[in-house]
Amino acid sequence: MTDARPAFIPSERQRALVARGIRRRRRAERRFQAYGIAAIVFAVSMLALLLVSVAGQGWSAFLQTNITLEVALPKDEIDPDGKGAAAIREANFQAIVEDALFRKLGVSGRDDERLAAKMISAGSDAILRDRVLADPALVGKTVTIALPAHSDIDMAWKGHIRRGAPEQDRVVKDRQFQWLDALAKAGAVHTGFNWRFFSLGDSNEPELAGILGALTGSAYTMLVTLLLCFPIGVAAAIYLEEYAPKNRLTDLIEVNINNLAAVPSIVFGLLGLAVFLNFFGLPRSAPLVGGMVLSLLVLPTIIIATRASFKSVPPSIREAAYGLGASKMQVILHHVLPLAMPGILTGTIIGMAHALGETAPLLMIGMKAFIAAPPVSPLDPATALPAQVFIWADKPERGFQEKTAAAILVLLVFLVMMNALAVYLRRKFERRW
Amino acid sequence: MKKAVTMAALCAAALVGQAHAQSRDQIRIVGSSTVYPFTTTVAERFAKAGKFKAPVVESTGTGGGMKLFCAGVGTQHPDLTNASRRMKKSEFDECGKNGVKDIFEIKVGFDGIAIAQSKTGPKFNLTLGQLWLALAKEVPEGNKDGGKLIPNPNKTWKDIDASFPAVKIEVLGPPPTSGTRDSFNELALEAGCDSFPSLKALAKSDAKKHKAVCQSIREDGAYVEAGENDNVIVQKLVANPNAVGVFGFSFLDQNKDKLYGHTINGIEPTFDTISSGKYPIARDMYVYVKKAHVGVVPGIAEFVAEYTASRAMGKRGYLVGKGLVPLPDDEFKKVNDAAKTMTNLSM
After folding, report:
1. CB contact under 8 A, A282 and B16
2. Which CATH code is given to the segment(s) B26-110+284-341?
3. Chain B residues inside the 8 Å CB shell of A378
4. Which class does domain A212-429 fall in?
């Protein structure tokens, strides 16, 4: 066979055609990448916008304006008969604090006094009382005490209320601004870290409202959720993946677990109301019930993630273990489960993060309520962080706007900490093969 | 793993058992969102005294609160419920059926519904009948009694009464989920509708149709549902001087510098006219106490005493600062006296 075909030599026109085609493909490639970059830029900038706006609104909630007063504690008004704590509890500290304030401001006359009384927090008398209760020797002396400013004054001092606006359009009146300036001149106004925000529960007064109740409520709820759904979820997944026979019934169960993952969360709330509260008679508003409801929500996520990570463990590992004579349980517990752990933890943390931000099911079981005292056990009434955000966002006072944003920040920090823990655990368990 | 599962199950079982046996040291209150701000304020003051834990107050709406309250006696049920209307006979019977027989009723005060407008907008003197003509879905032809019901043709206030300005009807009000809307439907719209004798007669012959005609609000854009947040309505009214807003009186009181309230049947909404019952769109607010829980849950008697004290719901009490329209003196004295003995509610 000598008549070999001559080598294909493309014509000028064909070559140009191919070059054009290549250029077009490269352009398409670059465009494809650009779409991806644009999507990332969009997502990141939206996230940045959210964080900046929330942090911008919320950071000032971590600061509180305090007014320092020298309060005289006359013995004949507080404890005339020397009865100690019982008498101190009954004493009218409201009048004592107001007297000190009026003296400091040089105020007299009923109208001025009423306006001036709104310079300091409505909880001032309780703060002073607790101080005296802690140290009864103070009775009869004069104490210098820093009291939180009323929320409106706090807002004005932080610059959220414009002085230029007509007087009738703002909550802080001209007289109050004059007093505030006079106090500042006398060095009695200080801005300090708002530790009350982290040590108190909810309140009707913005300057006394704290996040501790919601924070502990959320922590208990998450703890109950984790304790319930992690063992149950993993056990269910192991049985379904390793032992369950393949038949109609297990198919049905599998389909239902997948469906359960897509059920709207409010439905779980209704279930919790009907079963846990009405049938089992568990207490309303308790983090225990909240955790039980949320664990129903998280279970399918954990089961699906666990099964997927069991499947991804290389069969060679199982076979090697069987080859050495390990029983099925030993293979699972000693080899497959540890190797699947990083995947299981990822699934768990995604589910828990979802549960942390859930509000709807908690509304149904009464975890959106006015609860002043932070819970001390999972059976005490409590709110959760997202429910607290919801409650504060509804309030008319300007002071609660920054509290709302601050509560969102606390929620985000909580979430980041949970994720960090998961990343740490995952690193610890991770094996490479 | 198996061990962990059994442990978790045991833990859960133990907790459930504990919950059944648990007694409560904290008062639980449910009910109306209208009364909620007043009850939480009292709750906070009550706890501040340092003797008892702060009561837990949940806003469930009046009807929802009644259901929970009447479900039975025992610490798993709430001790008090807030209501922005009086307990119904059916609810009272339901309570009795579940063993909640001894109930004490506290009348806390009043809440008026204001029909308000920006100070820069037009001023009118409305009657409830005219208000109904402006908002109803169907009105009698020619806006006259006895006319055939036609879809509401009134576009401007002048269409309703020649003395009114030719300003487009634009009303911002609460959505159907709101308790304010329920009261508005009943006290304002139904009353306005009943000022037409032929429609009033309908109540006897066909109660269902009467309710549909009288309480249906037009859906052609003249009535805008402005959401549950009354603050938003206030802001929108300031921005649009021609719009009319419907919301709780306390918000009008707090924004007197920007808004005024329309007179209804010639009565201006003020603390006094609402308190005396002259202002027609006003409702009573109540708190109901389960007497079987007094002494079981600590602090209920003291909480009731704090609520009914003159420093709280009295004329110059701290609740007035939160927007409560207080009871007139003689009625306040009656409530205050009754609170000492907690006389049973009977229906």
Report:
1. yes
2. 3.40.190.10
3. 15
4. mainly alpha
